[in-house]
């Protein structure tokens, strides 16, 4: 088993621990605050998911930005940054620029890094740190931590329930048609769009696969043209009306595990990425052209 696969399998336990940690952490956004969430790569996609969840919970306007694209001069009551390594240049530059102008909180896996001084408050999720270059369990644990801090979100399972779904997701066999496909398009709505983006990124990072990601309702506005026999459309969360028939019409393979929590379903996509990498003779622990953290000179 690769190190990446081993870390993927630990996610249910990580999420249970994240829910408990969130209950005692003082620093998460408060209801009514105007909040921005930021990160780079995978962390940005988790920021997108959390922003949509927070608004769905009715807790206040919440934006998400890649750290390099954070809008100068826009006012917020709090800024949340996600950085596994605690060393990502764009995140650190942003936090230092914001210092003294707005309360900031960072989620990181390593308490020995510069983010500890750059942010006003830090949640250290070191039990979810990874040896792998490709992020899996830290990203989902960070989202589980933030999600648990929201309490009840209409139409969304609790983190504890999501962790139960994850226990199945780490063990059940992947469908042969999905493993043997030549192309995968991931779809989401609301908070699950961030998960769709992340699933596609995992497939590209670990396996160099041909993948795309879109908001589900945009799929029929062009992207469906890529779907056909031997190609997959994978929906995170509730399937839009008529979409299954449209995928069937063009001969594609639909994946839609609507009974499972979408974050647990992301685990299946992570496992698929590792499976494809290994089947093509690639090492998912050493992805091409990637490092654990992007540190700019």
Could you characterize the architecture of this molecule?
α2 (11-23) runs parallel beside α6 and α7 (159-169) packs parallel to α11. The model has no long low-confidence stretch (mean pLDDT 95). The protein has helices spanning 3-8, 11-23, 42-56, 89-98, 115-118, 137-148, 159-169, 176-179, 192-207, 243-249, 262-279, and strands spanning 35-39, 62-66, 78-82, 104-108, 121-124, 183-188, 211-215, 231-236, 253-256. The longest helix has 18 residues, at 262-279. The radius of gyration is 18 Å and the shape is globular. The protein is built from 11 helices and 9 strands. β6 (183-188), α9 and β7 (211-215) form a beta-alpha-beta unit. The strands form 2 sheets. The protein has a 5-stranded parallel sheet with strand order 2-1-3-4-5, sandwiched between helices. A 4-stranded parallel sheet has the order 7-6-8-9, with helices on both faces. The chain is of the alpha/beta class.
């Amino acid at each position: 088993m690769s190190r990446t696969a081993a870390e993927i399998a630990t996610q249910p336990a990580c999420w249970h621990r994240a829910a408990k940690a969130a209950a005692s952490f003082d620093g998460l956004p408060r209801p009514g605050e105007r909040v921005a969430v930021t990160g780079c790569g995978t962390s940005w996609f988790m920021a997108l998911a959390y922003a949509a969840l927070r608004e769905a919970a009715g807790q206040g306007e919440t934006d998400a930005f890649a750290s390099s694209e954070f809008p100068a001069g826009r006012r917020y009551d709090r800024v949340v940054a996600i950085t596994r390594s605690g060393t990502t240049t764009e995140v650190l530059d942003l936090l230092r620029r914001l210092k003294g102008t707005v309360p900031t909180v960072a989620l990181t896996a390593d308490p020995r890094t510069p983010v500890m001084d750059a942010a006003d408050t830090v949640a250290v999720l070191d039990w979810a740190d990874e040896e792998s270059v490709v992020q899996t369990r830290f990203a989902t644990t960070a989202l589980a931590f933030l999600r648990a801090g929201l309490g009840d979100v209409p139409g969304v399972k609790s983190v504890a329930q999501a962790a139960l779904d994850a226990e199945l997701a780490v063990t059940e066999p992947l469908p042969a048609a999905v493993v043997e496909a030549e192309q995968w398009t991931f779809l989401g709505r609301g908070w699950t769009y961030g998960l769709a983006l992340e699933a596609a990124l995992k497939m590209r990072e670990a396996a160099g696969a041909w993948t795309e990601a879109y908001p589900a309702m945009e799929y029929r506005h062009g992207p469906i043209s890529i779907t056909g026999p031997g190609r997959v459309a994978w929906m995170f969360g509730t399937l839009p009306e008529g979409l299954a028939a449209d995928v069937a019409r063009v001969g594609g393979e639909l994946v839609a595990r609507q009974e499972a929590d979408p974050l647990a379903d992301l685990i299946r996509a992570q496992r698929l990425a590792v499976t494809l990498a290994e089947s093509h003779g690639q090492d998912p622990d050493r992805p091409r052209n990637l490092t654990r953290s992007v540190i700019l000179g």
